[in-house]
Amino acid sequence: MRIALDAQPLIGERLTGIGYCQAGQLTALAKQYPNDSYCLQYFSGRDDAPKRERLQPYLRENVTLQAAKASGYLYRMALTILPVSYQHYFGKDAEITHFFNYIVPPNVHGKTVVTVHDMVYKAYPETMRGRTKYMLQLGLKKSLERADRIVTDSEFSKSEICRYFPQYQEKLRVVYCGVNTKQFHSACESEIQEARKKYDLDRDYFLYLGTVEPRKNLSRLIEAYQIFVRGKQSPPYLVLAGGNGWRNSEIYQKASELGIQKYVKFTEYVPEEFLCPLMCGALAFVFPSIYEGFGMPPLEAMACGVPVLTAVAASLPEVVGEDAVLVDPYKPDEIAGGLERLYMDEKLRKRLSEAGKRRVLDYSWERSAEQLHAIYEELCHG
Fold first, then answer.
1. R_g over Cα of the chain
2. What is the pTM of this model?
3. What is the pLDDT of residue 172?
4. For residue 127, is pLDDT > 90?
5. Once rounded to an integer, what is the mean pLDDT over residues 308-317?
6. What is the percent of the chain with per-residue pLDDT over 90, rounded to a whole number?
């Protein structure tokens, strides 16, 4: 099969969850199905060199690049008002074109697949950037109409798409994400100590890793942490690691308002070489997000052997099963209780660490690629 993939999620300076999902699936597809050809299509804009460099790690004998001399941002914005033809830029060579970021443009040659990761713009529109929400409001329904198959990351997200767009239920397929176990695994003590030194962590710590934005529920997590630290002389730090999202000034101010700023550490974006050791050094990983289409970070923590606290919300119970401490994300007292259990109960931490490592085996990029390739086969060969 000749398969084209929209490479826009892969060419940013920093990969987001969508980019990591595409990278994992593409890498596994190219390795497992070498007789198929894969073409990464992208808009090069004025300066093509940085984008080509970011795509170099994905190139193989059966993975090539195709650039269009235009601005991808302007093209996507134009789609909100004009039916700008995709074929005009990328031709008619592909049998299947897969778009990983919600939007299918008009006039794509051959069959089309689109990944719709969640329905956050419908369920929690107040937690989204206005620009992104606007593009989805104008473009998603048209994309679902154009797509021959709609891929989503969990049964929860499938039910959400059916809730808002029941007319497209027959097109929907679930393809679970995987975990990059080459990146997330048990780290050696020297690497952990180096990460501790870099981020000035001279005692135990709870770790959150992800974007700092409202949907991740970090204000309530900080409130819960304040409840947890009461009466403790040297409590574990709360480390909030990750890049800036948006509408996060309240999050950054919360610890100071509650008088616990000396215990709450913001690291900003964590370089890739420190992700795994920072994770491995944590007492527990905390991820009380209110809405996730899949929720990769808890599984990445499990791959590192770190016990997890997460929310009884959206897809997260589906992903972690019974192998994590599950709490109501809207109740700081309950989150605080979960932190206390993990802090005090060493046997619980050990049990969750072992169970999490086993659970991660169900979420490989190889399995994800098999599910995705079956959809391609279904479209091409019926």
1. 21
2. 0.92
3. 98
4. no
5. 97
6. 81
